[in-house]
Amino acid sequence: MASSLSFILALLLAIAATDAVTVHLLNKCPYTVWPGAVPVGGGSRLDPGQVAAIQVPPGTAAGRIWGRTGCNFDASGHGSCATGDCGGVLACAAGGKPPTTLAEYTLGKGGSPDFYDISLVDGFNVPMSFGPTGGSCHAISCAADINAKCPPELKVDGGCSSACLKFGTPQYCCTPPLTPSTCGPTDYSRFFKGHCPDAYSYAYDDKSSTFTCPVGSDYQLTFCP
């Protein structure tokens, strides 16, 4: 009986692994990027030209992947990053410290599609493209050097902050008393949108920034596309 249960469990695990979605990572930047990923993937190091992959179970919700820069970790995986740090560890268990260019996804299951986007709501640190492989669905690109063009009041070491993070007011953060119907784009969000039209530029930028693809698609994320 025990051996039969072990066989069934192994079979179910094998089926789940087969159904997993692969997110391919490629670093085309001239510098090292340390991808952080939650709730699946943790963290890794990608030198220029290197590739990696993350296996994500179907149905995974609120997935996030971002690039960290200026990192230094010891043999135990403890250290820090100049941008995108996730609590001083290589294997992230929480989101990165903004500003970060953020790839977000929720994988469908059954008849539900995948949802994915690139978000600049928390600012920008590394150029990025993100989307399904195979060309059947839209790939998002945010390849502009926003750091070099960042307004002086939003500039931080290694990145470009959002106006919400910088000023913390309802106008920029879409917090009460503002609502989705009364909080619109600002000059600062238009700056980000102008350089990366497909990316989220503020909290309610859904209509032009959220994309879908049939369930089961693999994905490609490229730093400095």
From TrEMBL:
It comes from the Eukaryota. It comes from Triticum aestivum (Wheat). InterPro entries: Osmotin/thaumatin-like_sf, Thaumatin, Thaumatin_CS. Pfam families: Thaumatin. Residues 1-20 form the signal peptide. The lineage of its organism: Eukaryota, Viridiplantae, Streptophyta, Embryophyta, Tracheophyta. Keywords: Antimicrobial, Disulfide bond, Fungicide, Plant defense, Signal. PROSITE patterns: THAUMATIN_1, THAUMATIN_2. Disulfide bonds join C29-C224, C71-C81, C86-C92, C137-C213, C142-C196, C150-C160, C164-C173, C174-C183. This is Thaumatin-like protein. GO terms for biological process: defense response; defense response to fungus; killing of cells of another organism. The gene is LOC123106356. Belongs to the thaumatin family.
